[in-house]
């Protein structure tokens, strides 16, 4: 008998709000169905029978981040069989370069242990369970990591530790660097998975470093100090700072000066710096990306190197999330040693190590792949942002990642997270796109959405764009009608904020470039 | 390899600094001795023979033969889109075909005497991860699991290190062949309670590592009654189920549950892996099979930290669902292991060494207590060091398995050729002969 599905969450409320609400409302004031009561009893019994970790919400799946996925799962878009289905734009996958990989696979049967050419390796590979990993695997990863950074820096294969994807890497580092109840600072907005990866089984806390749209969400020293002080006031010991560079969900990367500032900060506070560089290969303006490794190389005395750790994976740059190739690269010998022992809980299959070792040690292939991937991502990114700008939808300027950070603030009825959720539900149910609401990334300002663009083919891109544009067009037509109605009623709306907002939209609508008659889609069709 | 510990300027976590990773145990010290001087028939005939690693190398030819004749199903090469789909697949439910194949294989191993529902199979990267994951789900830090001694040294790390859970031993004695008794269960439980430790479950390994013997049905029933009475969990690590020499001598907890109509089954969970039965430790294929819906859901979520490579799932899905192949493999594998076992038992007997009567696994439980200077752990470790450095065999001392009686050793026999086993046996023979004089 399969496990029962999780109860449907009818309340699309930002997770912490939900928790607060549930704690404040006395049970008797809510009329519970018999089913609900039975479920509560069952849950109560479970609470005693299983651990706290097993019965809390630390798995993070009640976040709206995953609700959108569920909407997609129940009604997935397909060109032929389900053309009105939901298009998945909430999953940061890189599907643009599989043709290159498949070609390589076809030409290198020896990389597989199941072919006549590679089969003689089968036994040796199948038996190898040393947590150091195959030496050729580690060398290949070090080589790849270096080339992704334009060969500006080298990586030592002996510092490479395997993990169960970057998911496993983050959890392992949290286990190594912090005790239960201690904390990591994390700039907002951040990847929702961190709430599970860093906190769930480790008992470690995450403290947000609030970043604001007013300065393009850059991390400031003030924000860092502020977060650190808040932790101190709450008697929480901060053990490290976690940054994702390039950023998920922003798609931006840190400039050298900011990195140096961060390193200065952690060095002064004597806390760790974990740099998740999982999107390093998705930077479209290659020469401008600076890895923490480069900072250490250029300024070797800038900090105690024992504080610096990098998380990497092949899930984004290569598009191999299924192969679970996670990497911890630490400049701290002890951390390398301990993390390696912990890697027993999440080693990379030697079959995969073997294949990856072959593929990533071939420099011609690697260099070409990195170059092509960047170009295709840039092209896709530009297509989206350009088309959306034409209908007045802006996004944060970015040059990396498999997504962009879309600005839909002006579409919200009110600048609240509730409005954001309402609007998000509309996007899913009416526009049929699964995008991720900023609140699920702990963004401090409502109205931002992460939109993934690299996990679909060109035709689907066109459909997605078409849907967005149609929606914008319809919204404007509706507003024009509404405005017309209001005017004829001749009421005094001078102090009404709503009118002011609507007036602004009206101006936008009425200016020539946005006139429906001048719609780029119309032009394209002609 | 000695690690130069430079005092870190910022402290690492307590977990990182603790020794619960267990690598200072003699269990691992022996591996190091082997690594430094490994035996090789031609290049290093006087090197250390590895008998401390429970690997199954006796049936690889069968796997290789299968792959040769089933290229299409194990390679993406034939299907252009196959690679892409596989590389992208990261759903923690796992490939449906693979889960079905695992369920099917687990049934075959039990001769069809138990049924497994693919929906209850949760995939993890190895049994190491499965055991840790279950512990996180069943117990809070400070709580305890009861584990019969002697037990696999890796449990000290897997069950305790990052979870903060404790192991309280259920003492088993040679006088009744180390079988688990109701008295021993109660004693362990009471001991935990007397230390104010909350007991959350019992974890058994069946067939047992290091004993190399299956647990009798009667004992399984008693254990099940015990955990039901105490309202705690039962984890049955059945990683060696396919390595029982006689199919009908292995009884799975699944069979016992089935015979009870699954009453009280929500407290039962099975751990399995392909590392021993199929000899594929490198591929990291483990599974948690739980009769408890909540545990399945939670375990699945936790498996995000330790998923099996989709590439490996794909390869094995076709192999394990090929009933003709699995039936043949299981049968031949059992026969070969039995033959090896008999070879080592007879060889040791000739040298005057007795072993526990075993019927499963990749090792035998050797009794050297008559040869100890004194019936103490120190004497055991002394003779162990001698065997390692002079006889040049890496075997595992019973104390590293928390055996309550000194003098027992686990000796692996399936990770080498027959010729190497002969060499090992002759060395032991010589050693004992010399010692007697």
TrEMBL record, chain A:
E.C. numbers: 4.4.1.14
Reactions listed under catalytic activity: S-adenosyl-L-methionine = 1-aminocyclopropane-1-carboxylate + S-methyl-5'-thioadenosine + H(+)
Class in the EC hierarchy, top level: lyase
The protein's annotated pathway: Alkene biosynthesis; ethylene biosynthesis via S-adenosyl-L-methionine; ethylene from S-adenosyl-L-methionine: step 1/2
Pfam families: Aminotran_1_2 (PF00155)
Superkingdom of origin organism: Eukaryota
Cofactor(s) for this UniProt protein: pyridoxal 5'-phosphate
PANTHER family: 1-AMINOCYCLOPROPANE-1-CARBOXYLATE SYNTHASE 6, BIFUNCTIONAL ASPARTATE AMINOTRANSFERASE AND GLUTAMATE/ASPARTATE-PREPHENATE AMINOTRANSFERASE-RELATED
Protein name: 1-aminocyclopropane-1-carboxylate synthase
Protein's organism: Deinandra increscens subsp. villosa
UniProtKB/TrEMBL annotation, chain B:
One Pfam family named in its UniProt record: Aminotran_1_2
PROSITE patterns for this protein: AA_TRANSFER_CLASS_1 (PS00105)
Keyword presence, Nucleotidyltransferase: no
InterPro entries listed in its UniProt record: Aminotransferase_I/II_large, Ethylene_sulfur-biosynth, NHTrfase_class1_PyrdxlP-BS, PyrdxlP-dep_Trfase, PyrdxlP-dep_Trfase_major, PyrdxlP-dep_Trfase_small
GO molecular function, one term: pyridoxal phosphate binding
Stretches assigned to the Aminotransferase class I/classII large domain: 49-428
Alphabetical list of SUPFAM superfamilies matching this protein: PLP-dependent transferases
Family, as annotated: Belongs to the class-I pyridoxal-phosphate-dependent aminotransferase family.
Protein name as it appears in the record: Aminotransferase class I/classII large domain-containing protein
């Amino acid at each position: 008998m399969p496990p029962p599905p999780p109860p449907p969450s009818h309340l699309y409320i930002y997770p912490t709000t939900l928790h607060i609400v549930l704690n404040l409302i006395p049970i008797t004031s809510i009329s519970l169905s018999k089913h609900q009561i039975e479920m509560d009893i069952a849950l109560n019994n479970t609470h005693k029978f299983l651990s706290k970790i097993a019965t809390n919400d630390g798995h993070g799946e009640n976040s709206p981040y995953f609700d959108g996925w569920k909407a997609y799962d129940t009604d997935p878009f397909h060109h032929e069989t389900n053309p009105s289905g939901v298009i998945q734009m909430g999953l940061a996958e890189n599907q643009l370069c599989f043709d290159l990989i498949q070609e390589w696979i076809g030409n290198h049967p020896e990389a597989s242990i199941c072919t006549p050419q590679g089969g003689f390796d089968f036994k040796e590979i199948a038996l190898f369970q040393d947590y150091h990993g195959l030496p050729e695997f580690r060398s290949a990863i070090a080589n790849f990591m270096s080339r992704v950074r334009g060969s500006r820096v080298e990586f030592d294969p002996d510092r490479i530790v395997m993990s169960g994807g970057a998911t496993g890497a983050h959890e392992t580092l949290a286990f190594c660097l912090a005790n239960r109840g201690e904390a990591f600072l994390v700039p907002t907005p951040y990847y929702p998975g961190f709430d599970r990866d860093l906190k769930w089984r480790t008992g470690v806390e995450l403290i947000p470093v609030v970043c604001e749209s007013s300065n393009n969400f850059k991390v400031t020293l003030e924000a860092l100090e502020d977060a650190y002080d808040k932790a101190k006031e709450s008697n929480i010991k901060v053990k490290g700072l976690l940054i994702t560079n390039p950023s998920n969900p922003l798609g931006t990367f840190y400039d050298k000066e900011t990195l140096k500032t961060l390193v200065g900060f952690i060095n002064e506070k004597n806390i760790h710096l974990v740099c998740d560089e999982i999107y390093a290969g998705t930077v479209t303006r290659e020469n401008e990306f600076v890895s923490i490794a480069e900072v250490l190389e250029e300024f070797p005395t800038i900090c105690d190197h024992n504080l610096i750790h990098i998380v990497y994976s092949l899930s984004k740059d290569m598009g191999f999330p299924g192969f679970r190739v996670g990497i911890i690269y630490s400049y701290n010998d002890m951390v390398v040693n301990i993390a390696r022992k912990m890697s027993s809980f999440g080693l990379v299959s030697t079959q995969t190590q073997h294949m990856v070792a072959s593929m990533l040690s071939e420099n011609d292939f690697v260099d070409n792949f990195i170059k092509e991937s960047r170009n295709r991502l840039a092209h896709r990114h530009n297509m989206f942002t350009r088309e959306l700008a034409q209908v007045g939808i802006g996004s944060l300027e970015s040059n990396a990642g498999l997504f962009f950070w879309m600005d839909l603030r002006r579409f919200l009825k009110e600048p609240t997270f509730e409005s954001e959720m309402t609007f998000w539900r509309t996007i899913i149910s009416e526009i049929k796109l699964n995008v991720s609401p900023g609140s699920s990334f702990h963004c401090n300002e409502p109205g931002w959405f992460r939109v993934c663009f690299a996990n679909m083919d060109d035709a689907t891109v066109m459909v997605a764009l078409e849907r967005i544009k149609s929606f914008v067009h319809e919204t404007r037509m509706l507003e024009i009608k509404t405005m017309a109605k209001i005017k004829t009623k001749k009421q005094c709306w001078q102090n009404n904020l709503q009118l002011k907002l609507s007036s602004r939209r009206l101006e936008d609508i009425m200016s020539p470039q946005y006139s429906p008659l001048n719609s780029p889609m119309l032009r394209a069709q002609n | 390899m000695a690690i130069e510990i430079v005092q870190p300027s910022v402290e690492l976590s307590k977990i990182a600094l603790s020794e619960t990773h267990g690598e200072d145990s003699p269990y691992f010290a022996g591996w190091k001795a082997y690594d430094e001087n490994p035996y090789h028939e031609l290049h290093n005939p006087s090197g250390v023979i590895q008998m401390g690693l429970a690997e199954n190398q006796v049936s690889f030819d069968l796997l290789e033969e299968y792959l040769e004749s089933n290229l299409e199903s194990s390679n993406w090469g034939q299907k252009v889109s196959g690679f892409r789909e596989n590389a992208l697949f990261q759903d923690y439910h796992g490939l449906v075909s693979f889960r079905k194949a695992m369920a099917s294989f687990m049934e075959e191993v039990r001769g069809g005497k138990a049924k497994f529902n693919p929906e209850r199979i949760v995939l993890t990267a190895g049994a190491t991860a499965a055991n840790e994951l279950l512990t996180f789900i069943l117990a809070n830090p400070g709580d305890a699991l009861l584990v019969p001694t002697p037990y696999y040294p890796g449990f000290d790390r897997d069950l305790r290190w990052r979870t903060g859970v404790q192991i309280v031993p259920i003492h088993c004695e040679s006088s009744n062949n180390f079988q688990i008794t109701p008295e021993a269960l109660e004693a362990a439980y009471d001991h935990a309670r007397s230390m104010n430790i909350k007991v959350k479950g019992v974890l058994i390994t069946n067939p047992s590592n290091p004993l190399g013997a299956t647990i009798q049905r009667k004992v399984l029933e008693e254990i099940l009654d015990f955990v039901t009475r105490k309202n705690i969990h039962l984890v049955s690590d059945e990683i060696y189920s396919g390595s029982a020499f006689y199919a009908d001598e292995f009884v799975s907890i699944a069979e016992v549950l089935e015979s009870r109509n699954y009453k009280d089954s929500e407290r039962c969970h099975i751990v399995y892996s392909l590392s021993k039965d199929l000899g594929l430790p490198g591929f990291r294929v483990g599974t948690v099979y739980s009769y408890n819906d909540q545990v399945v859901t939670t375990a699945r979520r936790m498996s995000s930290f330790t998923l099996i490579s989709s590439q490996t799932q794909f390869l094995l899905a076709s192999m394990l669902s090929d009933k003709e192949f699995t039936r043949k493999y299981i049968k031949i594998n059992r026969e070969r292991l039995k033959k090896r076992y008999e070879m080592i038992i007879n060889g040791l007997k000739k040298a005057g060494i007795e072993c526990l009567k075993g019927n499963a696994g990749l090792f035998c439980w050797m009794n050297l207590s008559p040869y100890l200077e004194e019936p103490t752990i120190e004497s055991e470790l002394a003779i162990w060091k001698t065997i390692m450095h002079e006889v040049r065999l890496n075997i595992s001392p019973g104390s590293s398995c928390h055996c309550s009686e000194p003098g027992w050793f686990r000796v692996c026999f399936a990770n080498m050729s027959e010729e190497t086993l002969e060499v090992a046996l002759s060395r032991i023979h010589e050693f004992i002969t010399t010692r007697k004089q």
